[in-house]
Amino acid sequence: MARGPVDAAADAGESTEDGAVRGPLGYAVLGVVAVVLLSWAARYLSTSVPKWSKGTGFEGIGAAIEFPIYAILLGLLGNAVLGALGWRDRLAGGFRTEFFIKTGLVLLGASINLKVIADAAGPAIIQSVILISLVFGFSWWLGGKLGLDDKLRALLSAAVAICGVSAAIAAAGAVQARREQLAYSASLVIVFALPSIFVLPLLASWWGLDPKVAGAWIGGNIDTTAAVTAAGTLAGEQSLQYATIVKVTQNALLGVVAVALTAYFALKVEKKSPTVSAGRQLWERFPKFVLGFLATSVIATFWLAQVSAPTGKAAIGVVNDLRTWFLILAFVSIGLEFRAGALKQAGWRPVGVFAASTGVNVVAALGLALLLF
Length: 373
Fold this sequence. Notes:
Elements: H1 5-12, H2 25-53, H3 59-64, H4 67-85, H5 88-91, H6 97-108, H7 114-120, H8 122-145, H9 150-163, H10 165-175, H11 179-207, H12 211-221, H13 225-235, H14 237-252, H15 254-269, H16 278-285, H17 289-304, H18 309-337, H19 340-344, H20 349-372
Helix pairs in contact: 2-4, 2-18, 4-18, 6-17, 6-18, 7-8, 7-14, 8-9, 8-14, 8-20, 9-10, 9-11, 9-15, 9-20, 10-11, 10-15, 11-13, 12-13, 12-14, 12-20, 13-14, 15-16
């Protein structure tokens, strides 16, 4: 098979078109080792800091900081150190962000029990469809008004409307966004999710919201599943249950949005040759891992119905732990691959779009929660 200029550059250890140096296999192995070591440190901190801070004035903060923060920060630190040493581009072949992310999302499907959604989430389905449509539409419209790149506003809209980083990742695969845009979107999700963990349960308590309403509000508004779990726990057991159902319902709609974005970008934004069929364009652009995500969900749903609750809980716990590891590897890789140049050009507009969309999400989610729950 003929080899192109990128392959030749890889063999020679030269810069390829994406700016990374694909050197000998040994460099790639060293890159993987760097990712694994930093990921181990991130996982260690995420499990140890809550223990270290327990009983101190920092207990709440220590318990609230999640593994994506440690992973991205350590990845950025590794990026700076390797860059200063002149090794970053040499090891870039081992920063397998796309593989780690897609594997983690396929494993996420195991925690989406379709039976639970079908049996208990009628109002949650209605809320999720309305909320995702409203918030995504507002964010997309505002991003267009402010002149954001279509790919970036797709990531921001998906992240704020559905399930944070996971939605941004799926959208990035659908629209073929740059890694810098994904890193930026993921950072905004984390920045806005952290205070929500404490603010929303506190407001729910002050306003005397019913636990079901509080849970539906938290699940429909906070972007990341882990942050929803943390906030729901603070709000109470019943609130946690409803927050989880709403968030799981939104997660299940991730594939639908990915298909819609794939179709829009393939047929409207980046039109290909008319000789290429629409079906082929969709298939080429469709993020194939979404099929794995849906298949894992279906398999887990049917399997859980056949085994005892303790057995199912233990097995899903193992899958979730494995998923966490792959996502940590992905976030570390994102930090290692991050290049600040593209973000400096973004300015305040993406932050403004995300902040305004979050405000709309807070109000709309509360109104729907009061109406439906």
